[in-house]
Amino acid sequence: MNSMNVYNFSGGEGNLCGRFKNVLPRFFKILSYKNLSPNKRFEGSNESSIYYNGTDNFKHCLYKQNGKHHVTNNYGKGKIYKNKSKLLFINSSNSPHFNLQKKWNKQEGLNYLFNRKLMYTQGNYANNVYPKIFNSEKKNYSIHSLGDTANGGNTFSNEDKNKNYENNNGNNLDAYFDQINKYIDVDMYKNKYGEEIYNEIINLYVKRDIPINYEQKYFLKNVKKSIIFDMDKYNDEEFEKKIEEEFTNNGVLINTINKKYYSKKNIKRMLTILNYLPLLKIINSPMDLKNLKNKYLPLLSHELKMFHFFLVNITGGHFSAGLSLLELQLSLLYIFNPPLDEIVYDIGHQTYIHKILTGRKLLFLSLRQKNGISGFLNIFESVYDKFGAGHSSTALSAIQGIYEANWQVLQSNKNDTLKSEDSYDRDYTPNKFHISIIGDGGLTGGMALEALNYISFLNSKVLIIYNDNRQVSLPTNGKCISGNRPIGAISDHLYDFVKKNGSENLSEASQSSEENIINESGKKQNIFTNINYDYIGPIDGNNVEKLIKILEDIKNKGLQKSTVLHILTNKSSDFINSKSPINIMHSIKKNEIFKFNLEELDNCHEENCNNTNDESKKEDSEKNDTTINDDEIFSNETYINIYTKEMLKYLEKNKNIIFISPAMLGGSGLLDISKEYPKNVYDVGIAEQHAVTFSAAMSMNKNLNIHLHIYSTFMQRAYDQIIHDLNLQKIPLNIIINRSGLVGEDGATHQGIYDLSYLGVLNNSTIISPSNAISLKKALKYCSINRKEGSIYIRLPKVNTLSDSYMKNYLNMDIMRDMEEIEKIKDPEYARNNYFGKSQIIQMINPDKKENEGKKLVCIFNMGSMLYNIVNAIKEIEKDPVFSEQFSFSIVDMIFLNPMDTNIIDYVINKNKHDYLITYEDNTLGGFYTHFNNYLIEKNYISKHNLFVKNIYLPNYPIEHATYKEQQEFSKMDQQNLIHRIKNYLTSNFE
């Protein structure tokens, strides 16, 4: 095809500007420009190809009227454009008006444009343009199009290309995917997979030249097309039924997913993204995956990386771990036959690729969203998720349990009547593979080591894939007592082993061992072979070609005994290192990589979009009908931020404060501390039991002040040590409980809603639940005092602290006075008499005042971080004259448990004569309210004073992934639900 000339219609004498010229393609037939920012359709037009640049300057559009072509600047009048056939939109803020006269018919019109070489006009917008290319003749290339709803034939046909381009809103997704390609660094593929694959990747994903017959080229046979390519043939109800059937056939337990996530609107959004990923677009299950030709797996690997970057940026979630294991997840599904073959991943936060390829790619806009797909493996979500997880070091125990259960069933089916244990045939194994994937971090956990021992002892024929990336669950590149290296002697041992048997460069080591890896691995001595495992490796776990060869060999030969496959992977890249060198982008927030609005994926008329948006805004407005918004309530700092800043101040005066964490330096706010005081920080790895006993023993040295940081959800794993090693010995350890209460998108496996229940029963353990930054600072000051005995647990939620203005205006706090009191707490006697075990009164009703005469008195006792909800709810109830005339309200922030402030309870009941008592806490059954009720019973207050008592606490069933606010609403613990619950309670018990 010959290169066509670019004609300048700007009215100027010079050439097109360099920037404008650079974005023009070298070959084209028709070139069309649609201004991208801002993108607006003309009001009243039925043509989605009408755009303007949002200014009042000339707007030019080529259209047909009365058999003639016209380019006009009368865009603002509108009527002339309605229902007209548009060929080319020309936008310029300085171009003169001109007309083109030519009789119109379809072919003649196209020829006219080709022959006249009509191109862009140049204007002040030139630096913003992003051209689209139409190629209607060159058969071996296809323009990438948006909003494709092609049928089951060739996905990218010429007819569909042009149709879809006309339906495009001008969304500049090209730029996003271009940027993602830069983040991934496509040049690395040349060395990894060779020139041919590299060129394929450049053509498909950089140039976006997708062959018309690409399915025939890349796949062994045609893949059965998804219903989504025919969605416009069905009404909404029919489509919902068919897409649910498709999900079910692909192993998805779709009843657990909210229908809105697979509505036509959201499916079209996903399809818009998948148009950039032609292979992934038609792969819906592992069976489809197996039809992809082996040599083109690197192409799919690249598509999965692009999908991962794009979607996780939209939803937020775990990031780098999924990239580390991307090729392995792809390879396992390609070689083995799940769900028949059992595959279990440790933790599960790294399994997004597994989810994508097992029927859930179209649901990824729901990742970690309320009633959407989980960020971890979930047995209630898919038949491919064999064992749920969320915590570390469980996978080896799980896979052995599954293997032994299958072996037992197999033995019983043999109808073996002999009862001697010698009759059991350990060589007679299930006709399936049992595979577990665990990382170097997971193997620092004691539970994993226990399983490693027992698997070998029984010779359970499982394949353990050891993912060696020199990181732990949350990367520990921060400095600590062990330097800035990963935690664990096993990791160090295997690192030395790799260097000894290959090269000091891990990549070179994996390459050098590939050729004879099966034959040579058995001769190598390491920790695995020393405990009687077959050992294979190490190999490059980020090279899909090498993984396929090794896994294929393992599948063909079978397992003779318990086997370890050692893979070397990399969580990082130049992009990740530059953006987040410390935590390696372990997880990312929404829009952290680039800002993106989901509406950019929509292909709908502006008036429809506006109606939808107005409707949703109206619903949101009604739903959140409150005079106090989040900006007024919260500061910009989290509780962890406050903790870190305070500790850095303490360390300036006292270098004997020691910090200990089980692999959670980043999430615990210790990275900044470790930078300045590395010798004061211990990262013990994923070993919560060890962390507690280790910290307890260190705390027995009275010269040190020990702070153990542990997530509430992970502290459950060390409960025996808390009771046996810590509580019974009355050791004065400070435990900072991170992420106490609701945690948001991490969901049920990570909720911190049980700690008040299991810690509250320990008599030598004081629990402090700060509801604001001042309360936290007081607690930290108290922890700095040397004490003889008793542990202190400080519960820190995963939310921002309350703003100063909110504390002053709604909590009635005198911040200056409170700051002065913090300094007084360093005096042990003052602290014992004025701080320890004391609550804080937010508002207290005086029954003797005239305005309270004849009213029922209500007191709410809060425990924990959601104090603001109860305060806001009461403020709203007080505005209701029906209730304000009948009731007066007191609010107390209890703060302490063990000891609980019984004096304030006595005061409220005996002196202030309150009638109704309500407790409110960020914990489930068995928490603060249990202690409160027990005290009332012990004192016989309920019958003696005719009290009405209401306990409000979090439910004891799993609270799944959603935003923090949505979880509050779901649990009926938010402001609006509290208003309703308290009003109902008061009216139903009003005398």
Automatic annotation (TrEMBL):
<dbReference type="GO" id="GO:0016114">
    <property type="term" value="P:terpenoid biosynthetic process"/>
</dbReference>
<dbReference type="InterPro" id="IPR020826">
    <property type="entry name" value="Transketolase_BS"/>
</dbReference>
<dbReference type="GO" id="GO:0046872">
    <property type="term" value="F:metal ion binding"/>
</dbReference>
<protein>
    <recommendedName>
        <fullName>1-deoxy-D-xylulose-5-phosphate synthase</fullName>
        <ecNumber>2.2.1.7</ecNumber>
    </recommendedName>
</protein>
<comment type="subunit">
    <text>Homodimer.</text>
</comment>
<dbReference type="Pfam" id="PF02780">
    <property type="entry name" value="Transketolase_C"/>
</dbReference>
<keyword id="KW-0784">Thiamine biosynthesis</keyword>
<keyword id="KW-0460">Magnesium</keyword>
<feature type="compositionally biased region" description="Basic and acidic residues">
    <location>
        <begin position="609"/>
        <end position="625"/>
    </location>
</feature>
<keyword id="KW-0479">Metal-binding</keyword>
<dbReference type="InterPro" id="IPR029061">
    <property type="entry name" value="THDP-binding"/>
</dbReference>
<dbReference type="GO" id="GO:0008661">
    <property type="term" value="F:1-deoxy-D-xylulose-5-phosphate synthase activity"/>
</dbReference>
<dbReference type="Pfam" id="PF13292">
    <property type="entry name" value="DXP_synthase_N"/>
</dbReference>
<dbReference type="InterPro" id="IPR009014">
    <property type="entry name" value="Transketo_C/PFOR_II"/>
</dbReference>
<dbReference type="Pfam" id="PF02779">
    <property type="entry name" value="Transket_pyr"/>
</dbReference>
<keyword id="KW-0414">Isoprene biosynthesis</keyword>
<dbReference type="InterPro" id="IPR005475">
    <property type="entry name" value="Transketolase-like_Pyr-bd"/>
</dbReference>
<feature type="domain" description="Transketolase-like pyrimidine-binding">
    <location>
        <begin position="637"/>
        <end position="804"/>
    </location>
</feature>
<dbReference type="GO" id="GO:0009228">
    <property type="term" value="P:thiamine biosynthetic process"/>
</dbReference>
<comment type="similarity">
    <text>Belongs to the transketolase family. DXPS subfamily.</text>
</comment>
<dbReference type="InterPro" id="IPR005477">
    <property type="entry name" value="Dxylulose-5-P_synthase"/>
</dbReference>
<feature type="region of interest" description="Disordered">
    <location>
        <begin position="609"/>
        <end position="628"/>
    </location>
</feature>
<comment type="pathway">
    <text>Metabolic intermediate biosynthesis; 1-deoxy-D-xylulose 5-phosphate biosynthesis; 1-deoxy-D-xylulose 5-phosphate from D-glyceraldehyde 3-phosphate and pyruvate: step 1/1.</text>
</comment>
<keyword id="KW-0786">Thiamine pyrophosphate</keyword>
<keyword id="KW-0808">Transferase</keyword>
<dbReference type="InterPro" id="IPR033248">
    <property type="entry name" value="Transketolase_C"/>
</dbReference>
